[in-house]
Amino acid sequence: MKYISTRGAAPELEFEDVLLAGLARDGGLYVPAELPSFSAEEIESWRELPYSKLAFHIIKPFVGGAIDDDALARMLDETYAGFGHRAVAPLAQLDHNEYVLELFQGPTLAFKDFALQLLGRLLDHVLTKRNERAVIIGATSGDTGSAAIEGCRHSNHIDIFIMHPHNRVSEVQRRQMTTVLEDNVYNLAVEGNFDDCQSMLKQCFADQSFLRGERRLVAVNSINWARIMAQIVYYFYAALNLGAPQREMAFSVPTGNFGDIFAGYLARKMGLPVSQLVVATNQNDILHRTISQNRYEKHPLAHTLSPSMDIVVSSNFERLLFDAHDRDGAVLADLMNKMSTETVELDPQRMASVRELFDSYAVDDDTTCQTIRAIYDDTGYLLDPHTAIGVKAARETRRSMQCPMITLGTAHPVKFSDAVEKAGLKTPDLPHHLTDLMDREERFDVLQNDLNALQTYVSEKVFG
Ligand SMILES: *Cc1c(COP(=O)(O)O)cnc(C)c1O
């Protein structure tokens, strides 16, 4: 399998290199040159498979022989054996034909474990084979950091540095990162906000001389192709459980960087009968404004009760735009340049084709809390604020009551007690494997908001 850049001017890569690459050299994102596609009979034949075996069939074509089948199957078994529910991605039912796909049964209680548990193992496998060591530097507003650390803590080939904004992530989120005490894990509380962390991260990737050419710098944010790839699987899993491929399915996806929902779009292109995808956003609604009004315009960041969806621009949207522009990299490079500096209206016909599949809806904090409350009162089921936005958006935009509507449950409510309490409800207990989280020893260093301080820190730790 070959991978190409959305901006058409970077070298084609094979799977292993795409795994280790961040942004393409031309500033674009890597996508498969051709998608695998499955017949209805083939999809049907997977109905009885447990999650990790289904994952093997879906992921194998993307890996394209770079990892042998036995090793890939073993990694997938190990990855999903670590989840807290035997079904890995169980469905909860809220109403007739209305479901939540619980993607928060992994070690850090958010859907990011699905991809990052696998990514850690894939990286370790490839680095071992090449006898290389890598440095991961990441920035997190909460969920990505803990999932990435959990995914890499056991690797002998990776040093992982995760920046979080000092005193600006919840205590559960911080402790999920800082109580991991392995020698290759470094938590940095940066005296700044999430944007500051992200901007230092970008600069580290732009000029890697602080690693003296001796270590490869790897990205674990959602532009990493392998993360998207792993997320395709649960669309198939949920749909098969509810009667696909004989039946169409709709999905509502709480969306920030458009990674998770892009995986649903790919599932459809690979043969899954998906009739509708709902882009559910919070007040940071650039995607909703783009899809509903065809106006792509950056607004300042708003801090909401669903912080994992607090974004100004949505990086993976570029991958959809690439397809919507007939995969013309030169056209897309121009468009993305324009979009970085000005308000853009997309070609109306291309937008119309996007809208054939996608709907969108934005939910403010008050409505988020009301939704948490209303669903709890009706069903006894407690939603986290991100998932609540998904459920609300699904109800507002649903095209058919005959077709099952599945909202992706992106996080466990215990991670977001602010919203749960604002909804007038009690935060649930931590799940079994985390009951002692609040008593565990923490380790992190506070770092100035300064690129030089970061790079000095990293190189001292890596090179000793
Ligand atoms: C990361 C995250 C999202 C947004 O996912 P994207 O792939 O960026 O769209 C939504 N909900 C939760 C809980 C998350 O952690």
UniProtKB/TrEMBL annotation:
The modification N6-(pyridoxal phosphate)lysine is found at residue 112. Residues 2-80 form the Threonine synthase N-terminal domain. The keyword Amino-acid biosynthesis applies. Its cofactor is pyridoxal 5'-phosphate. The keyword Endoplasmic reticulum does not apply. Pathway: Amino-acid biosynthesis. It comes from the Bacteria. It catalyses: O-phospho-L-homoserine + H2O = L-threonine + phosphate. Keywords: Amino-acid biosynthesis, Lyase, Pyridoxal phosphate. Its EC number is 4.2.3.1. InterPro entries: Ser/Thr_deHydtase_PyrdxlP-BS, Thr_synth_N, Thr_synth_N_sf, Thr_synthase-like, Threonine_Synthase, TrpB-like_PALP_sf. One of its GO terms (molecular function) is threonine synthase activity. PROSITE patterns: DEHYDRATASE_SER_THR. Coiled coil: none annotated. One of its GO terms (biological process) is threonine biosynthetic process. NCBIfam families: thrC (TIGR00260). Belongs to the threonine synthase family. PANTHER family: THREONINE SYNTHASE FAMILY MEMBER (PTHR42690), THREONINE SYNTHASE-LIKE 2 (PTHR42690:SF1). This is Threonine synthase. The lineage of its organism: Bacteria, Pseudomonadati, Pseudomonadota, Gammaproteobacteria, Oceanospirillales.
